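Structure (tokenized):
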């Protein structure tokens, strides 16, 4: 049998990482908390979207999910067994501000207060993300992220949270994957809020980034000078099919790189948007969307850039010039191993991505954190494929470190099997298997592997 890139291997021993390298795991509020209507929480766009017929496979919803809202102490105990240095979770905006703005729900804040205290007592650094896609429905009713006002509401929400948790939380993440929220939520409509606007969704990028910049200022003001602020961007190295590549393919790949990666990283790190002429945006103000001084708000210095990596993107020129997009997403010609989600396993894409960031941004690139990386694999406790995936990707991070990229931490996605958005409970990304009928948690082989890896890296 021949081996293919991404095949499970026996990845230990790995190179030694810096002694202060942070080992973590990530989750998100709507994917694990459940308690969708408890303690005064307002509805989010995901509570609404899951009720739309056909939106989520088999009509699954996050109403109960992993019941983490009630079982958080058990989950923190699992993290402690893993030996995590840090835990990335997200805060549900409508749990804290049921209408998105105005009245604060103290019981919502109390939950995150208890979670932060439990983490600190277990020696785990709380690393909250303020927005992981669950916008308050009341703000969606006012236009969601198509409305500039939502950015200001996000800044106000950041201040409310930082005033409550800023005495104990040192490291913050503003947004999760503004690219995926824009494209899946507003472009294609496969995620909440379920709008299918294609390129008319692009203002969602700017308003999220403006909200990010306003939140950076709010966090620094409320959480003090020691607060570290990051954003978590989904980045994907863009590849051509070598059997195809024409000049038109190269232009398409460049256009895709602009939309997926540079549209979000450039303004944050350089204070400028990339050339968007492939998307018909030739006016620097995008027809009144980008206003004077917005870019200086967006480019406020960051303490780190979070990167969520799953796989590269293969691009060709659009087969149908009337498709409305200047690229087609295609499949690699190479037979990579595939996860249960059918995503190709391409660890060297992560090294390529990190080296590419360093090459593009140079000294403007802050320290990098891998804020998500992981895979869906079939249910079951013997997840050798996940062990292979993690080992190979952590090895890819080690390679980038060896080549001079300043990477400070790695958070795997995910601690628990959870509500995988449009796929419902069908995709299992957890180091811990969750039986959704009983809420029983059972660590998988990958849990033991990650625990041993973390222990082996401690001085
Ligand atoms: C892509 C991944 C991406 C994910 C977002 C998938 O289709 O292949 O790269 O992270 O969507 O949920
Ligand atoms: C998201 C997660 C999601 C994961 C796997 C990322 O795009 O941030 O919420 O579960 O990919 O699809």
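Design, position by position:
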């Amino acid at each position: 049998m021949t081996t293919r890139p991404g095949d499970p291997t026996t990845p230990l021993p790995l190179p030694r990482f810096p002694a202060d390298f942070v080992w973590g795991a990530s989750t998100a509020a709507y994917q694990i908390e459940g308690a969708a209507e408890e303690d005064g929480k307002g509805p989010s766009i995901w509570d609404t979207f899951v009720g739309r017929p056909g939106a989520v496979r088999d009509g699954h919803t996050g109403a109960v999910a992993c019941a983490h809202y009630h079982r958080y102490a058990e989950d923190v105990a699992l993290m402690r067994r893993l030996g995590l240095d840090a835990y990335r979770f997200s805060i549900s905006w409508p749990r804290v501000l049921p209408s998105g703005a105005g009245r604060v729900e103290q019981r919502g804040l109390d939950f995150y207060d208890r979670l932060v205290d439990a983490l600190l007592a277990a020696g785990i650094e709380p690393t909250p993300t303020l927005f992981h896609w669950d916008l308050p429905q009341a703000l969606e009713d006012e236009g969601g992220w198509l409305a500039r006002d939502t950015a200001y509401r996000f800044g106000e929400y950041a201040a409310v949270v930082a005033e409550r948790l800023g005495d104990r939380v040192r490291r913050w993440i503003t947004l999760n994957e503004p690219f995926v929220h824009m494209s899946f939520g507003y472009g294609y409509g496969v995620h909440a809020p379920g709008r299918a606007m294609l390129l008319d969704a692009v203002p969602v990028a700017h308003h999220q980034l403006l909200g990010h910049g306003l939140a950076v200022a709010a966090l620094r003001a409320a959480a003090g000078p020691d607060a570290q602020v990051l954003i978590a961007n989904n980045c994907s190295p863009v590849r051509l099919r070598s059997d195809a590549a024409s000049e038109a393919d190269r232009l398409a790949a460049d256009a895709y790189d602009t939309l997926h990666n540079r549209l979000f990283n450039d303004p944050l790190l350089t204070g400028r948007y990339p050339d968007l002429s492939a998307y018909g945006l030739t006016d620097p103000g995008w027809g009144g969307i980008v206003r004077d001084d917005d870019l200086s708000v967006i480019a406020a210095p960051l303490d780190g850039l979070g990167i969520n990596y799953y796989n590269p993107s293969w691009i060709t020129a659009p087969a149908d010039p009337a498709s409305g997009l200047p690229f087609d997403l295609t499949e690699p010609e190479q037979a990579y191993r595939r996860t249960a989600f059918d995503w190709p396993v391409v660890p060297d894409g992560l090294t390529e991505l990190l080296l590419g960031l360093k090459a593009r941004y140079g000294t403007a690139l802050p320290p990098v954190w891998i804020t998500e990386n992981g895979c869906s694999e079939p249910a079951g406790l013997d997840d050798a494929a996940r062990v292979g995936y993690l080992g190979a990707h952590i090895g890819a991070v080690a390679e980038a470190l060896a080549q001079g990229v300043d990477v400070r931490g790695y958070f795997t996605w995910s601690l628990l099997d959870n509500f995988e958005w449009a796929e419902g409970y069908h995709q299992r990304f957890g180091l811990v298997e969750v039986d959704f009928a009983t809420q029983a948690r059972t660590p998988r082989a990958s849990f033991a592997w990650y625990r041993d890896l973390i222990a082996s890296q401690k001085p």
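Reviewer-requested clarification: The pocket of beta-D-glucopyranose (ligand 1) is lined by residues 180, 234, 236, 310-311, 343 (CB under 6 Å). The chain has a mean pLDDT of 96.
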